[in-house]
Structures
1.
Amino acid sequence: MNDKNKMKPKPLIAVVDDDSSLRESTQLLLRSAGYRAEVFASAREFLDSPRIDETACLLLDVRMPGMDGLELQRFLNEAQRQIPIIFITAHATDNAEQRARKAGAVDFLRKPVNDEKLLSAIQTALKGWKDDERRRQ
């Protein structure tokens, strides 16, 4: 088999949320849409994961025990890890949304999230990832 016939890797979407039912349902949605999906119950679990380096998009809750979503976003920015982030939260404030967007969030969605709106936001977030993949080839 030559290189042109190799399958391109599917983007990995990481879901970081302390709500187990949201993690599971989002993982099912993402896989049914053709993405690879990994779920994490906390920011620390994500940071300790070997998947961090291959994450193409991060779906992130704002309020979680321990390091919250905004703190994780700040940590990733300071570490110069350019992972597109989409916040999904039930505890939205205008201040949190402004901080998230100012720090580079692709989108800020409120729970319950419409599946089509979420998938559209992911497509927007992945535009840069796909461009990076093309440059590597």
2.
Amino acid sequence: MKKVLELDLTSRIFNLGNVQLITSQYGDRKNISTVAWLTPVEKDPPLVMVSIDRDSYTFELIDKSGEFVLNTPTSDMLDLVKKVGSTSGRDIDKFKELNIKHSKAHTIVSPIIDDCIANVEFIVRSVVPLEKHAMIMGLARYAIVDEALFSDHWLLEERNISLIHHAGSNYFCTTTFLADVSKR
């Protein structure tokens, strides 16, 4: 079961640099893709930057709608992470073709992915065009996490879960260990 997370804790969802599934929607067109280049940049207000290819369908929908959702997959979802990141939503309806369970978000139109362990809804604060990509700064508006897997941090070892990290090209690795150095 998921619980509402205080927005000042949303940076802890992303601090590990784990891969996210990004969802977007404009009108009746929706999309899901993989994003690996992201970072929290501010705690109050809760801001996250994501790097998105400006030619992508994902960027087109976010640019038009001014919103997106970051959904946190576990390593059990690696096949889905690879599939949604290597196909374009312009060509297929990924939600239908890949049988992705999703629900209505709480504060925006873009969908949340039901099987992900965290879902954070964002509105676009700013867009910085780069060479091929754009850095999109999102302001978190609403966040939910699996209550059994997150307290004020990920409970990786305690719950035997692992988060996905992109290591370049077709390589991925996982995070399964989180050390509390205050206890040393």
